[in-house]
Design brief:
By secondary structure, this protein is an alpha+beta fold. Helix content is about 40%, strand content about 20%. The strands form seven sheets. It has a six-stranded mixed beta sheet, with helices on one face. Strands 1-2-6-5 form a four-stranded mixed beta sheet, sandwiched between helices. The protein has a three-stranded antiparallel beta sheet with strand order 19-21-20. Strand 13 and strand 14 form a beta hairpin. The protein is flat. The protein starts with a helix and ends with a strand.
Length: about 550
């Protein structure tokens, strides 16, 4: 429940994906129930009744006018009566979600709509979910598309989506080489398991990849079985709108968009097991690896390997393979790895970050991966990723949900968290005044004659410089405290006559912003010059 001032702050930010203002002088507008549906099916939001919008104005305090409502108690009762009637399929609110705020003569009715639990979505007007379901984008409420409604209905199942029997798909649609490789890993990881002796069909059935429905008198491969072990052709026949794509965009430029790629090219059976097996080594190939044997297999593992592997597994087990279109996409770059999958979040983001509960869309695929040592089904996977990334000093991984494109992206950046001191230094470095920038450019453009005149005016001839050690003249030019900061850089310059920012970082162990400040300090003495362009800068004496 918000206070008056808190609500005004939100209103004056303008209508957005989680805020809707409506005039509603004497009655509840019909459109309120469309917004209720859209908030419940998207990310939740706040509806405020009693606020008029003048779209000809730009300034928020002029655009949003607090008119108030004339009979707030009656309007609140009318809203509750409707929300509990058959005009809406579900009431997901509690008493505290609907309240009245008053300030002098103005009363506003506030309705805080949470995101509905996945077992209750879609929330819709009327009796037909395909006609009464709404979602929300930055332009407002919109009728959900049929495939979006189907996705919400699929997600209502507490047992996941990958146990569905696929009509017409049999063990003939399994790629035998894939299954053979999987069984080899399974046997190595589970040396005493009773499933080792089963025939292929029984083995796949025990994993949930093949199922019999005695009531319907049907049997065949499940979504899990086909997606994990199927031939590429069979998978493309059934899931023609789902693609798998890995791109290494490290050191990419205008001429080279990527340096490595794994996608459909006819050279491999494009099932999930093969995609995971081909791409996982590429994600960690530049990381240091220990040598450990477990169950006669080499285990090359560090916490960072575990975090990246967990992120890969999460992408696979939470993907909605029945979406109208979608890509299992992994982008590796110099500064991050991005994992994207089709489908929206089943659980609230805060609950995912907290952990403790797992609601995978594909629990049988999750089991298949777990049985060969990949992933965790106890709800601790994502908190583990956060904890590991924090232990390396990196910024927290970011989970982004695009409810319009219907996909989720996990961004894991290799970017260190700066201390308060380093952050201030970075800002100081970025906030160079225009005057300093002009002076730097002017210094670079000085002619040889001008440079000699400047040196002469400072009574420092080139001969004088050569006669005295750099450390000697700089110790006089800088304060004692500042000279101690750059002393290691000065020693290097005396021996090598030039230095780069990267070398300076390695020598001092300081952050890039701190090193830039140190080098700027040396340049300002006149004894160190800057040569080269922005990407190839050297500091020379």
């Amino acid at each position: 429940m918000k206070t008056w001032n808190e609500l005004l702050t939100e209103i004056y930010k303008g209508e957005k994906i989680d805020m809707e203002c409506k005039k509603a002088k004497n009655s509840i507008p019909v459109s309120v129930y469309e917004t209720y549906s859209s908030f419940a099916n998207t990310k939740g939001g706040i509806i405020v009744l009693g606020v008029d919008e003048d779209k000809t104005k730009i300034e928020p305090k002029e655009r949003f006018i607090l008119r108030g409502i004339s009979n707030p108690e009656k309007l609140r009762e009318d809203f509750w009566n409707t929300i509990n009637s058959q005009k809406v399929n579900a009431n997901i609110l509690v008493d505290d979600d609907v309240y009245i705020l008053k300030q002098e003569s103005i009363s506003l009715l506030v309705i805080e709509v949470p995101k509905a639990d996945f077992t209750m979505r879609p929330v819709y007007k009327g009796e037909n979910p395909y006609k009464g379901t709404f979602k929300r984008n930055h332009e407002g409420d919109y009728h959900a598309k049929e495939y979006e409604v189907r996705a919400m209905i699929r997600d209502q199942s507490d047992t996941g989506n990958d146990s569905t029997i696929l009509e017409g798909y049999t063990m003939d649609d399994i790629d035998q080489d894939t299954l053979k490789r999987y069984r080899y890993m399974f046997n190595s990881w589970n040396p005493d398991h009773v499933w080792r002796e089963l025939d292929d069909k029984s083995f796949v059935e025990m994993l949930g990849g093949y199922r019999r429905d005695r009531r319907e008198k049907a049997e065949g491969l499940t979504v899990a079985g086909l997606m994990m072990f199927g031939t590429g052709l069979a998978i493309r026949d059934e899931f023609e709108n789902i693609f798998m794509d890995y791109r290494d965009e490290s050191s990419a430029n205008a001429d080279t968009r990527w340096i490595d790629r794994v996608t459909y090219d006819g050279t491999w059976e494009n099932n999930l097991f093969n995609f995971f097996r081909k791409v996982m080594p590429k994600l960690t190939e530049n990381m240091k690896k220990p040598f450990v044997l477990k169950n006669q297999q080499r285990v090359e593992d560090t916490p960072m390997h575990k975090a990246i592997r967990e992120a890969f597994v999460n992408m696979i087990i939470h993907a909605d393979y029945r979406m109208d279109a979608g890509v299992l996409k992994i982008i590796k770059s110099d500064d991050a790895i991005r994992f994207s999958n089709p489908g929206n979040l089943k659980l609230p983001k805060q609950q995912i970050y907290r952990g403790g509960e797992s609601k995978a869309r594909n629990p049988h695929i999750q089991t298949m991966l777990r049985m060969i040592g990949y992933g965790d089904n106890a709800g601790s996977g994502f908190p583990d990723i956060l904890s590991i990334w924090k232990s390396y000093g990196f910024v927290e991984p970011e989970l982004e949900e695009d409810t319009i494109a219907n996909n989720v992206t996990l961004i894991m950046q290799f970017k260190e968290i700066l201390s308060e001191e380093d952050e201030n230094e970075r800002r100081l470095s970025e906030d160079l005044s225009e005057e300093d920038e002009n002076e730097r450019r002017l210094s670079e453009d000085l002619s040889e004659e001008d440079e000699n005149e400047r040196r002469l005016s400072e009574d420092l001839s080139e001969e004088d410089k050569n006669e005295r050690r750099l450390s000697e003249v700089l110790s006089e030019a800088l304060s004692e405290n500042n000279y101690k900061k750059v002393e290691m850089l000065v020693s290097y310059l005396e021996k090598n006559k030039s230095i780069t920012s990267k070398i300076a970082e390695n020598i001092t162990g300081k952050s890039a912003p701190t090193v830039r400040r140190y080098l700027k300090m040396l340049v300002e003495t006149g004894y160190v010059k800057v040569e080269g362009n922005t990407s190839n800068t050297r500091y020379v004496v």
